[in-house]
Specification:
- It comes from Rhynchospora pubera.
- This is Probable glutathione S-transferase GSTU1.
- Belongs to the GST superfamily.
- By secondary structure, the chain is of the alpha+beta class.
- The chain has helices spanning 16-28, 44-49, 69-79, 91-103, 105-111, 123-140, 153-158, 165-172, 181-190, 194-197, 203-214; strands spanning 7-11, 33-36, 58-61, 64-67.
- It has a four-stranded mixed β-sheet with strand order 2-1-3-4, covered by helices on one side.
- β3 and β4 (64-67) form a beta hairpin.
- α1 runs parallel beside α3 and α5 (105-111) runs antiparallel to α6 (123-140).
């Protein structure tokens, strides 16, 4: 397939937010140019494309930048609407999908608090992570994906965070699978999709990044 005219993604290899966009593009069969950003020294293109937040990811389509990962996924879904939809067409289901996709961010936000804590200080964030995951597990229920039998918006939003589970468990010494087995099984099903398998970071590579980034052992 020829490169889609003017499609570029500015991201960073360990960014779960950037991976949301990558998975969405892969699901739609869109070929694009990927530009790896050096976050300590952000490129002029990134600063120009996202002057408000100055953050990745940014999708540039025909010279027009789109920022914020969930906004990007919805944009991709609408522009390449000839392919299987990611966002539900029903207004209520779409509203619910947006709610849970945004809620999934809490896993990563809470997990990030672990790096500056040790021992008993980690108990609070560990408990909160499990509580968040249990709510997501309840929403998943016995479904194959969060949208039922169809891989969709919430799956795209949440699955990149699962590559960080190993880092949380290793550093804080607890088991996610023991508490939310359905979430772990769901993640394994998602990994059977080419769009996910070729995008999601190896958990051990993420842990090496975390150790270097936050100076932990």
């Amino acid at each position: 397939m020829a490169l889609e005219k003017g499609v570029m993604l500015l991201s960073f290899y360990a960014s779960p937010y950037g991976q949301r966009a990558q998975i969405a593009l892969a699901e739609k069969g869109v070929q694009y140019e990927y530009k790896e950003e050096n976050l300590p020294e952000k490129s002029e293109l990134l600063l120009k494309s996202n002057p408000v937040y100055k953050k990745i990811p940014v999708l540039i389509h025909d010279g027009k930048p789109v920022s914020e990962s969930l906004v990007i996924v919805e944009y991709i879904d609408e522009v390449w609407s000839d392919k299987v939809p990611l966002v539900p067409s029903d207004p209520y289901q779409r509203a619910q999908a947006r709610l849970w996709a945004g809620f999934a961010d809490k896993v990563y936000e809470c997990g990030g608090r672990l790096w500056n804590l040790k021992g008993e200080e980690q108990e609070g964030p560990k408990k909160e992570i499990i509580e968040i995951l249990k709510l997501l597990e309840t929403q998943l229920g016995d479904n194959k994906y969060f949208g039922g039998d169809t891989f969709g918006f919430v799956d795209v939003a949440f699955i990149p965070f699962t590559s960080w589970f190993y880092s949380y468990e290793t550093y804080a010494n607890f088991s996610i699978e023991g508490s939310v087995p359905k979430i772990v099984q769901w993640a394994k099903r998602c990994m059977e999709r080419e769009s996910v398998a070729k995008t999601i970071s190896d958990p051990k590579i993420i842990y090496e990044y975390v150790k270097k980034r936050f100076g932990i052992e």
